[in-house]
Amino acid sequence: ASNLLYVDQPTGTGFSYSTDLRDIRHDEDGVSNDLYDFIQAFFAEHPQYARNDFFITGESYAGHYIPAFATRVHRGNKAKEGIHINLKGFAIGDGLTNPAIQYKAYPDYAFEMGIIKKATRNRLNKVLVPACELAIKLCGTNGKTSCVAAYVACNLIFSDIMLHAGDTNYYDIRKKCEGSLCYDFSNMEKFLNQKSVRDSLGVGKIHFVSCSTEVYMAMLVDWMRNLEVGIPALLEDGINLLIYAGEYDLICNWLGNSRWVHALEWSGKNEFTSSLEVPFVVDGSEAGLLKSYGPLSFLKVHDAGHMVPMDQPKAALEMLKKWTNGSLSESRAQKENLVAEM
Fold this sequence. Notes:
The chain is of the alpha/beta class. Helix content is about 45%, strand content about 10%.
């Protein structure tokens, strides 16, 4: 369906490394500039791919990376920097993009899914949510120390919920959390760290880890910043955006994602808000609920947690194929025509 290019980023993640500590990034400007430099170098080396439609995708914390990189590519194109990149769209799966809205949704989602009781939700909404909102305002889009303070204040909401959730896997509330990452990825790490694999990838003696503590700590100042701010301009210029989320993910739940998408201030906001939610059908079965208007689509994926492609591979592939070829919203249009005729 497409050529795939996977990038371990920011520097220090996976097999991506530097011998200079100054290359460890602390914000999305640094991250997006590195990614832009990389993709420019890639197209210079492989010019046959530069004319292809270009889509940027990622999940979880990529709710920050993806809008920043899409904005950087679009800006580079407009300024006629380097090689033109044929940016058509960007997609975020179970991402963290607008923390103010998404953290506020935690108590409501946890209550709706039976993780906490109504009294707990009311207490969180009365005490911890306002403190989180205030802290995020102080953080803004470029704060530093204040953003770390916001990270601490807001994650008290999540920690409180997890006290009630026990050993529930916050990436998929249908499962139990086992190990530091709630999933056992040891086989993947063993495979990637084999000498033959490292040699074939040309990464030398770099040791692969699933999560980099160094990068995590370096990006704490970035965590609570709102990365939704650059998205409206991309939508106005016709760059397609797909937001999707598994219904059983707690940590970047569909409810919080739906709320920030609906709150986006762009010319199609009213039309998107009033558009019909229609079934996303795969092999004759409903695999999710889709809402779309113009360049913006939101898909709640059934029977999936945080990692939709792992939980629902067939539905995820169908979603991306239809989105990249422009047919994802066809069922929506057909349904609206049917309603109009009735």
